[in-house]
Amino acid sequence: MKNISPKHVGILLGVAYGVIIRVIWELDQLNGFGGLVTISFMFIVPFVIGFIRIYFEYKVKDELTAGEMTVIAWQPIFVFLLASIVTLLEGSICVLIALPAFMFFSSLGGLTAGYGLKYFKNKQGTLSCVALIPFIIAPVEINYLQLSNIYTIENTIIIDASPSQVWNELGNVNHIDKDELPFSFTQLMGVPAPVSAKMSGADVGSVRTSTWEKGVKFNEVITEWSINQKMSYRFEIEPDIIPDTSLDKHVKLGGDYFSPLTGFYKINHLGNGKSELTLSTTVQDNTNFGVYSRIWGEFIFRDFHTSLLKLMKARAEV
Fold it and tell me: For the whole model, what pTM was predicted?
């Protein structure tokens, strides 16, 4: 250890800190003391990792610019997230969602360490106190802070087809070839693509079964059926039948943290052989991430909506 540079010690300790918390906070025995889908893990743990990195960097270079503090703090974050993927602790979806927050808060931790060590002479015990912050806040958050948010995402598209032609594409959706779906960021993240949809009937109470790649399957129970105008539904999702390998468990459809509730397709006749098709989904978000989670939720659903609407447009205009 004597031959290891303090810079490398900062990276190794930062990564070890993140991995240890990642592992122990998923243990069932610690449900009331820590968790991964928490403010403590998503925001405060990367703050501490960035603090650790710059704390040791300061031992060999006590004149750091704000830019250096900001960027150097990312080093253990990248290693930690890469290790999480390689060891299968996390999937690509969760890592990509976490990356911006981890980078931002690790930079805050790095800046706090850099300026704190520069202007405060009494440094004894500083690192230990900072490292304990998530363990103090997490139990309070888990037991007393429960934020649940419901929001709706809508997208529209103009289709060169009559309402009846558009309507024919909504209920039963024949097998979707991969080249029919336009490129989307959600597919790049690893979100399974839709494959088909089958209706059990053609009225209120009928069930529309949607099948996606990787064994994902769920039902949409029809709550409104106005031919050539509107098809509304509520989602019935059994998370236990969705394979764990299809979606990261922390963002599994119908799971503890994230679930679509209702949705609808609505057709507006524009005249001149054109129609406007709207796709809407109402989502429940049970994380404590607030605005950050909503930004990601809306981004992912809008991207997914756009792919589906372009598919419907291409098929209806044939």
Answer: 0.87
